[in-house]
Amino acid sequence: MTDAPLFDKILIANRGEIACRVIRTARRMGIGTVAVHSDADRHALHVEMADEAVHIGPPAAAQSYLVIDRILEAIRQTGAQAVHPGYGFLSENPRFAEALDAAGVAFIGPPKGAIEAMGDKITSKKIAAEAGVSTVPGYMGLIEDADEAARIAGEIGYPVMIKASAGGGGKGMRIAWNEAEAREGFQSSKNEAASSFGDDRIFIEKFVTQPRHIEIQVLADEHGQCIYLGERECSIQRRNQKVIEEAPSPFLDAETRKRMGEQACALAQAVGYTSAGTVEFIVDGQKNFYFLEMNTRLQVEHPVTELITGVDLVEQMIRVAAGEPLAITQDDVRLDGWAIESRLYAEDPYRNFLPSTGRLTRYRPPEEHVTDTAIVRNDTGVYEGGEISMFYDPMIAKLCTWAPTRVEAIEGMRQALDRFEVEGIGHNLPFLSAVMDHPRFVKGDITTAFIAEEYPDGFAGAEIDAEQLRHVAAAAAAMFRVDEIRRARISGRLGNHERTVGTDWVVAVGDTLFETRIHADREGATVEIDGATHRVASDWTPGTPLAVLQIDDETLALKVQPIVSGFRIRTRGADLRVNVWTPKQAELARHMPVKEAADTSKLLLCPMPGLLVKLDVAAGDEVQEGQPLCTVEAMKMENILRAERKGVVAKINAAPGDSLAVDEVIMEFE
User: Fold this and answer.
1) Residue 498 pLDDT class (50, 70, 90 cuts)
2) In angstroms, what is the C-alpha Rg of the chain?
3) What's the pLDDT at 492?
4) Pick the CATH number of 111-136+215-237+251-335 from 3.40.50.720, 3.40.50.1440, 3.30.470.20, 2.102.10.10
5) Catalytic annotation, pick one of 293, 484, 633, 638
6) Are residues 54 and 76 in contact, defined by beta-carbon separation less than 8 angstroms?
7) Single pTM value for the model
8) Where in the chain are the domains?
9) pLDDT at residue 591, rounded to an integer
C-alpha cells in the first residue's frame, strides 16, 4: 500500500450516516470529498463534513438522490475522480455504474455485470444454484398479478415470502400465511418496490420458520483474490428490517463458518465480483444454510465486521476501485473479540414502531472511545437541533460496542444505550435496551421471529427486576435530597444546616412504595431501603438530564426529567415515574384520584406523520374488524390502517394526498 492519495477527490452519492462514514475514511486517507444534498438536507451533517457540497434537487429522493444525471452534473462541477454510493439509492443500480464508466469516473463498488447478476434476486438465485450454493425453494419467474401470486404461493406451501426482485432493506417484502395475505402482500410489495426502486417485479419463495439470518462479508479485488471476513448475525429484525446485529454469530461453529465463507467467495468469483459485498444466508437450527441474496454494496451493519477484524472496509473499497490488489489474504483474517450494533431509529416503540419525525431538541450520544478492552463507536448523520425528515430512512445512528467476550460487549452496549440522550422525537432506544436484557438474547437463542414471538402485542416498556427497581429508588432518593437542599438554599430556608432537610422519605416507583432513610456525608449517601443498605455516590447536579451514579459496586446511568415531587427516570428500557414524598405526603397521595384518558374509541387517529395515499372506505360505509380503512406512507413504507372493531364510518376528515400529523383524526365512527 502507499500513503499517497489513490484519488484526489471522491464524491459520495448518498446522505446521512453512511455519507459521514465514508468521509471519515477518505479524510484519513488524504482524499478530498464532495457531498450532494437535496433541499431537505441543505444543513445536514454530511454536507458540513465534506470539503465541497453540491445541491441536487427537491427533498423527494426520486427527484434528487436517485437522479443519475444530477449526480453526473455534480461530478462535472467538482472534478471528482471516483464515486462511493454508500447503500440504498443508486448503490446497486447498474445504469449508474455504467454511466460513471462512460464518464471516465471510477465506481467504488463492483462491476456493472456483477450488480446486474446479483442485484436481481431471481437471477442471483439461479447463478447461486449453478455455483453450488444451497438455495431456498421458491418460484424464480416473474409474477404478473395477485391471482398468479396466490396460485404459486399455494403450490410452494404457506408460509411464503413475497419479495421485490430489486429490493433491499425490508422494502417491498411481505410474509403471507394464507391466500388472502398473499394477494394483499403481492400488491403492497409491488407498490413499495415501484416507489422505492422504480422496479415492481416480484418473486415468491418458501419462508423458513425458526430461521437465523446470518451473512458473510466478502472482499475481492481485480486480480482474482477473494476473501471472507467472518459472519454477522442479523436475526433481530422487525418487518424484515434489521435492528441489532453482532459479529461473530453466537450460533455458528468454525466448520460451518468456513463452508459458508467458501461458498460466498465461490459465488462472488462466479460473477467476477470486486469490492466489498455481502452474501446473505438463512440458517436453520441444524446449521443448514441457504442462500438468500447478495448485496453488491457496503452493508449498514459493516462496522461490527470492522471491529472484530480490524479491517476498514471503506478503505479497502477505495483501494480496490483504484486497481490495487488486496494486501491481506484469508490466512491473515482473525476474528478478535465480539461486536454488537444497535440501530437507533426514529420509530416510536410505544406506537408499534411507527415512524416519527421532528426536531432533535437533544442529541447526545455516549462518548466514543477505544481501549484494549472496550470500544464504543457511533456512526451517525444527525446533530442536536437537526430535523428528522419524512422523506428518508428513519435510521438516526448505529451504536456499536466491542469487547473481548460477548458478555462484555452486551454489558458495554447496555451502558452506552443508557447514556444515549435523544429528545424531541419518538425513538427505539428503550426497545434496544430491553433486548440487551432479554434472557433469550443474552443466551444467543434468537431467530428472525424473536421480536414477533417475544413482543407479540408490541412494546410497552421494559420491566426491570426487583433489585434494579430498588437501586432506582435509592438513586432517586439521593438525587431528590440534593435537589431539596438546593431548593431550600435558594428559598432561604437553609443556611448551611443541611441536617434540617428530612432523612425519612417514601419513594414511589410506579405502584411500588419504598420507605427510605438517608444519611449523607461528603463522599455520598447511605440509603436504607426495603430492608437493605446501599451506598450511593454521584456528582449529579439538579437540572442535568443524565445522572451516572455508583450504587454499591454497580454503575447506574439514568435519564432524569424533573416532575412534581420527583422525577421521570428512564433506564434499561423502562420509563418510570418516581415520586419522592415525605411520609405525610405519601399518605395523602393514596387518596388522590387517577385521571382517566380521553375516549378515542370512535376515532381513527394517524399513528405517525405521513402521507395519506389511499382511502378504502367512505362516509356511511359499514366496516368489519380487521378491514383496511386507509394507507399512510411514511419514510418509504406503506402502512395499512385497519378497523379495530365493527362499525359505521360517520365522517372522513382527510383526502388522499394530504400530509398528516401524528394523532390527526382521519375518520370518525358512529
Assistant:
1) very low
2) 27
3) 57
4) 3.30.470.20
5) 293
6) no
7) 0.84
8) 9-108, 111-136+215-237+251-335, 137-206, 337-462, 466-589, 603-669
9) 80
